[in-house]
From TrEMBL, chain C:
PROSITE patterns found in the cross-reference section: ABC_TRANSPORTER_1 (PS00211), ABC_TRANSPORTER_2 (PS50893)
GO MF annotation terms: ATP binding; ATP hydrolysis activity
Gene Ontology cellular-component terms listed: plasma membrane
Keyword Cell membrane: yes
NCBIfam families (alphabetical): oligo_HPY
Chief localization: membrane
Protein name: ABC transporter ATP-binding protein
Topological category with respect to the lipid bilayer: Peripheral membrane protein
InterPro entries hit by this protein: AAA+_ATPase, ABC_Ni/Peptide_Import, ABC_transporter-like_ATP-bd, ABC_transporter-like_CS, Oligopep_ABC_C, P-loop_NTPase
Keywords: ATP-binding, Cell membrane, Membrane, Nucleotide-binding, Transport
Cell location: Cell membrane
Residue ranges of domain ABC transporter in the record: 5-255
GO biological process: peptide transport
Length: 577, 324, 342
């Protein structure tokens, strides 16, 4: 049903021309209906002209395609850059599908997934008219390896490419051609050589780090002032930390780019806006779209959810994020799996859902760790949460008995001070675990140092008896590796600043390796589902909420839908006419 | 003397800010790399940024940069940031000084505009209140003044935006900063609410100060003399009364303006004005030491400058202060 | 034909939160051109309020003013504020005590004189400045062309008082009121200033009121003297009447308090015990009775009945319950001998 709607809507978006979204599901006016844009394109239009006005509470980590890590930055970067692959900009599950962008198609694995070959499209040019070659892509990836100059992007290429001694073109000038980690047998072919097999390399190829950068125009850490465009728009001005203006790129050719249009005359981004005020301007239609990952902030959420006139233009949609609490096996008696399971049974997930803002603003009650919109998700519910979201006291007591603590025990729960929802979560857990005799001490820490000094520092957590640590994680991209690896792979644990707060299960590690090497997407998805199940079985993590973002689209905004991939509005299609 | 105090202060910041954050060199460095950098990258960053050096060495490097400039590797080449160089931001990698100077016109526009509004309204209200002590106007305006100094600007700011922009539509919806030289009307339109909101906060204090000063001055003997000469009451109040009252007002004005030029932190954040105050907030929340240092120095410079100007103006206003 | 300045039953009352302050409570006197009246009393006796009342400076400031003030045939109590303002500084001017606080510290002496002059004379600044220099010269300030640009704090006390006089005289006032003109000055300067005022009065032929707590100041200048106590006139007569035939015990006290060169300054021959009365709760009966050494002579009357101001002889008025004969007897036999003791 969802997929069907999406297909109809996107078809309509292709040729509609200003009329309201067609009514695949029989709705009278889907454009002004709550959650309409979750499954279909709202206000399809092919009219051109106008300025798309975007506003942002902070700033991008960078707009240099080689130096960005946030989903909204990657989403935005596709206005002016073209990476080798991209997620299809369509609503519904189809949006999780990777397609060729700068490359004609997805990569061709060989050597068991250790070598990936891409063929570039013909006729793609930079904004100055220079043709894009495979060398520009190689250079772009190579420069992103230098974390001294470009520190913000992900390190997948550093970790997986066969870099040898090569440390990037800044430190090793003139060595690019002799570096064989990436080869460019001709101007349209690029070959990546990995250290070990990785089946999901097309996801890496989607990273903006593969968007071509002309070496002659590269200004290192200053490149963000004017990244050279290959997409339909290019930088007209970039007043750092204040404002970005994009205009049409005259050298972009629609014939080479089946996934993009060039409807807006220009795109303006106001940076560093006061968030409450930005939300107000969004609600009054003075800003077309807010650039962030979770939609409107707490104050505006109330307006959006309580005023039906406003709510009809809002969308509550799953984002690739789960709110959960780590159960620390280093702290007794959680070294015993039964004590951990007692927590998983006793927790009242409904109360925590309330703490995060309820089903609309907060999210759905989580049955397992993996967010359900991710590729490969299979529904599992090992603790019967769907039937008893308030917790199962009897089962919890059974597990406590099995653990040798029939009367319960005391431990400490940590949370981030600045986050009211996490404090309320800790309180909800204190209450629900109290029902089976597990007494919790609440301990808040400053958010900025939560990982560097407190919960994320195993020594500290152990010494201070942090048995439970409130936490949450969002995926880099909607595929198992991008979600799980940083939080459940025991081998990423380091002395401080951890993202994995203590999940140590060799079975999980092995499954991750297996999934990483699998080149068949379907099989890989199945392994990630197994990882999800194993995480639940080893009971190091108590997931409770699959997060939703609450997004608002002014009625004047055209071609709007929530991308299942980004978990926010797809920027590429937006227009105003 | 002042320079000495400033240098001590900056050193204290240099020394204390990272310590207060309670971070090791790697902890600190991990803030300036991507959100999932590995330990090696973090460690390299710490070394590159010099976090492992003794604080005195780091400070020395900073001070040296002010006098000799700084060379920085931006990737494809080496860039020289000429003296006085306040270094490069750890986060944005931009040189600090041009960033601050770039934002100066915004803070300047905000502070000076607001100052005009608050001096006019504050002093006028204070004078009228003093002359009609105990009247309805006096009570009302002093009540409003109390509200003015008590209400936080992020409250008055957001409320005034909601009322005047969103409900009444009295000011345009251009939220973008436009320089005066480009379009004075839009410039003023964009700034009128921040001016008024900021001025509301300050005008209150000036009204109270002026009122108290006027009450005192108007009972002075020389006011009686002025009246005995047959001067019109308006002249007595404005030429003789207000003139004497303005000395403490001027002192306060200099200090306030100096502080504001160092960044109207809350106002700029509330109204999304990318001025020096906003810069300072971002710098502190990012723990971006070069930015914090830069903005501290610039703010200190403004305060010193403002004090100097006030001292000079003193002599103009009050002949008793003049040196023989 | 009424005199140049004719004050009749002047009352100036100030309503306050604590009650009605009767600062001036029925004062009557007259003054001709070229003549000098001394108003004498302790602080709080109402003498300064009277003078400010004549200038109309209490108008519109919450004071209840009644009675009549006739100046050159014009009634001022009922006149408009604006009209009285036009007279102020021109027809009548005032010299204040303590010129350091009475002159504006931020303007030059010259500017302040120029301002006073230009209110009432439509002249250019340059002309007014020339006039100011001229005035400064006439009051005996050396190098007036240079001092005109000095600030009050740059003057000595005596010079400041001269400048103050120059300012007051700048518009040739016909009535000049000097409020404690010499209090802040040392003795030799006092004498110079008094001489100056006398000379200027002759030159301008103006009526002069000198207000002081010190009978010595008015001794040489005054034609008539009015002694005030508790807002009321208690004795009024010619200078000779007051100095040679005083009849009120309070006046005797004032005479006894006059500093004399042949005695120690701290020595008081006839000290007045107690302190001036509260102007809100004026003592019943004779306002002076709590401090009067002769209260017992009139019995309960002193405490219950207010004495009237009555003429004893030839325009000499006294407010006392004792009979004129009794008072003269006391003066001749008890007071005068003490005062004249070498």
């Amino acid at each position: 049903m969802t997929a069907a709607l999406a297909l109809v809507a996107s078809a309509c978006g292709g040729g509609g021309g200003g009329s309201k979204s067609s009514t695949g599901g029989g709705d009278a006016a889907p454009a002004s209906q709550y959650k309409a844009a979750v499954t279909q394109v709202v206000n399809p239009s092919t009219k051109t002209g106008g300025t798309l006005r975007m506003g942002m509470p902070g700033d991008f980590d960078s707009v240099d395609p080689g130096d960005m890590y946030y989903g909204y930055a990657w989403n935005f970067a596709r206005f002016y850059t073209r990476a080798l692959t991209m997620f299809k900009p369509v609503p519904g599950e189809e949006g999780l599908q990777l397609v060729g962008d700068l490359a004609e198609d997805l990569g061709k694995p060989s050597d068991g997934g250790k070598t990936w070959t891409y063929k570039l499209r013909e006729g793609v040019k930079f904004e100055d008219g220079t043709p894009v070659t495979s060398k520009d892509v190689k250079y772009a990836v190579a420069r992103s390896l230098d974390k001294d100059i470009l520190p913000s992007g992900p390190t997948y290429f550093n970790d997986w490419l066969d870099t040898g001694d090569y440390t990037g073109p800044y430190k090793m000038k003139g060595k690019l051609d002799s570096w064989k980690g990436i080869e460019t047998p001709d101007d349209r072919t690029i070959v990546f050589h990995l250290k070990k097999a990785y089946g999901g390399f097309d996801y890496f190829a989607m990273l903006p780090q593969t968007a071509p950068v002309p070496e002659a125009k590269d200004t290192g850490s200053k490149y963000k002032e004017h990244p050279v465009a290959t997409g339909p728009y290019m930088f007209k001005s970039h007043e750092l930390t204040k404002r970005i203006e994009l205009v049409k790129n005259p050298n972009w050719d629609a014939a080479t780019d089946p996934n993009r249009k060039q409807l807006n005359d220009s795109i303006e981004v106001l940076l560093g806006q006061n968030e409450d005020d930005l939300d107000q301007r969004l609600l009054s239609g003075k800003i077309d779209v807010k650039v962030n990952s979770t939609g409107v902030a707490a104050n505006a959420r109330k307006t959006v959810l309580t005023d039906e006139k406003v709510k009809q233009y809002a969308d509550s949609a799953l984002i690739d994020r789960t709110w959960f609490t780590n159960i620390n096996g280093d702290v007794k008696p959680f070294d015993n799996i039964h004590c951990r399971k007692a927590v998983l049974y006793a927790a009242d997930r409904s109360a925590i859902q309330g703490a995060y803002g309820g089903p609309d603003a907060g999210g759905d009650v989580a049955l397992s760790l993996m967010p359900p919109k991710m590729t490969g998700y299979q529904k599992i519910d090992p603790y019967g949460v769907e039937a008893t979201p308030g917790g199962n006291v009897d089962k919890a007591k059974e597990e406590l008995a099995a653990c040798g603590q029939p009367n319960g025990f005391s431990t400490t729960i940590s949370f981030r001070n600045e986050r009211a929802a996490e404090k309320q979560t800790a309180e909800a857990l204190q209450q629900s675990l109290g029902r089976v005799g597990i007494k919790l001490d609440l301990k808040g820490y400053p958010q900025g140092d939560y990982f560097k000094l407190y919960a994320g520092k195993p020594d500290f957590a152990k010494k201070n008896g942090l048995g439970l640590m409130v936490y949450g994680w969002g995926a880099d991209y909607p595929e198992g590796f991008g979600f799980f690896q940083q939080i459940v792979d025991s081998r990423v644990i380091r002395p401080a600043g951890n993202t994995n707060l203590g999940v140590k299960d060799p079975k999980i590690d092995a499954l991750i390796d297996q999934a990483a090497a699998e080149t068949d997407a379907t099989k890989r998805g199945a392994i990630w589902a197994q990882v999800d199940k194993q995480v639940m079985d080893s009971a190091f993590i108590l997931p409770y909420v699959w997060a939703h973002g609450l997004f608002y689209r002014p009625p004047t905004l055209k071609n709007v839908f929530v991308s299942q991939n980004w978990g926010m509005y797809e920027f590429l299609t937006l227009s105003t006419q | 003397m002042l320079l000495f105090v400033v240098s001590i202060a900056t050193f204290a910041i240099f020394f204390l800010v990272p310590r207060l954050a309670g971070m090791s060199a790697d902890d600190l460095a991990s803030r300036y790399v991507g959100k999932a950098a590995n330990a090696q990258v973090i460690h390299d960053t710490a070394i590159r940024l010099g976090f492992n050096d003794p604080v005195i060495v780091q400070y020395g490097r900073f001070v040296k940069g002010i006098f000799t400039g700084v060379d920085r590797n931006y990737g494809p080449g080496i860039e020289h940031c000429p003296a006085p160089c306040l270094g490069y931001s750890y986060v944005s990698q931009n040189p600090v000084l041009p960033d601050i100077l770039n934002r100066l016109p915004i803070t300047l526009s905000l502070a000076l505009g607001a100052a005009v509004v608050w001096v006019i309204f504050g002093v006028a209200t204070g004078v009228v209140s003093a002359l009609r002590r105990g009247s309805f106007f006096d009570r009302l305006s002093m009540g409003i003044a109390l509200a003015g100094v008590s209400l936080p600007i992020f409250f008055t700011g957001i409320v005034s935006l909601a009322i005047f922009r969103d409900q009444l539509g009295l000011v345009g919806d251009v939220a973008d900063w436009v320089p005066f030289s480009e379009d004075p009307l839009t410039w003023a339109n964009n700034l009128i609410l921040p001016w008024v909101t900021l001025a509301f906060l300050y005008a209150a204090g000036y009204a109270r100060l002026t009122r108290a000063g006027m009450l005192e001055t108007m009972s002075e003997d020389y006011i009686r003399t002025a009246r005995a000469k047959g001067l019109a009451e308006r002249v007595v109040v404005l030429k003789h009364g207000l003139r004497a009252t303005l000395t403490p007002v001027l002192t306060m004005f200099g200090l306030d303006l100096g502080l504001l030029l160092g960044g109207a932190v809350l106002t700029e954040s509330t109204f999304s004005l990318p001025g020096i105050g906003k810069y300072a907030v971002d710098a502190i929340s990012n723990n971006d030491l070069p930015q914090v240092m830069g903005v501290t120095l610039i703010a200190a410079a403004f305060i010193i400058l403002a004090n100097l100007i006030v001292d000079l103006l003193y002599a103009v206003v009050d002949p008793r202060v003049r040196l023989a | 034909m009424s005199p140049f300045l004719d004050v009749k039953d002047l009352k100036i009352h100030f309503p306050t939160d604590d009650g009605l302050v009767r600062s001036v409570d029925g004062v009557t006197f007259g003054l001709e051109r070229g003549k000098t009246l001394g108003i004498v009393g302790e602080s709080g006796s109402g003498k300064s309020v009277t003078s400010l009342g004549i200038l109309g400076l209490h108008k519109g400031r919450g004071a209840n003013i009644s009675g009549e003030i006739w100046l050159d045939g014009e009634e001022l109590v009922g006149a408009s504020q604006e009209h009285v303002r036009g007279l102020r500084g021109k027809k009548m001017a005032m010299i204040f005590q303590d010129p350091l606080s009475a002159m504006h510290p931020f303007y030059t002496v010259g500017d302040q004189i120029v301002e006073a002059y230009r209110i009432h004379n439509k002249v250019t600044k340059a002309v007014a400045r020339k006039h100011a220099i001229d005035m400064l010269g006439r009051v005996g300030i050396p190098e007036p062309g240079r001092r005109v640009d000095s600030y009050p704090h740059e003057f000595s006390g005596g010079m400041r008082q001269r400048a103050m006089i120059a300012m007051a005289l700048s518009c040739d006032p016909e009535l000049l009121i000097a409020d404690e003109p010499t209090t802040a000055l040392d003795v030799t300067v006092q004498a110079q200033i008094l001489d100056l005022m006398r000379d200027l009065q002759r030159e301008f032929d103006s009526a002069l009121i000198i207000i002081t707590h010190d009978l010595g100041v008015v001794a040489e200048l005054s034609d008539d003297i009015l002694v005030m106590y508790g807002g009321k006139c208690i004795e009024y007569g010619s200078a000779d009447d007051i100095f040679y035939r005083p009849e009120h015990p309070y006046t005797w006290g004032l005479l006894g308090s006059m500093p004399r060169l042949d005695r120690e300054p701290t020595e008081r021959l006839l000290p007045i015990k107690g302190s001036p009365p509260s102007l809100i709760n004026v003592p019943p009966g004779c306002a002076f009775h709590p401090r009067c050494p002769y209260t017992e002579r009139t019995g309960d009357k002193a405490r219950t009945e207010a004495p009237a101001l009555a003429e004893t002889e030839g325009g000499h008025l006294v407010r006392c319950h004792m009979s004129p004969a009794e008072r003269r007897d006391l003066w001749e036999n008890e007071i005068k001998p003490v005062l004249e003791t070498p």
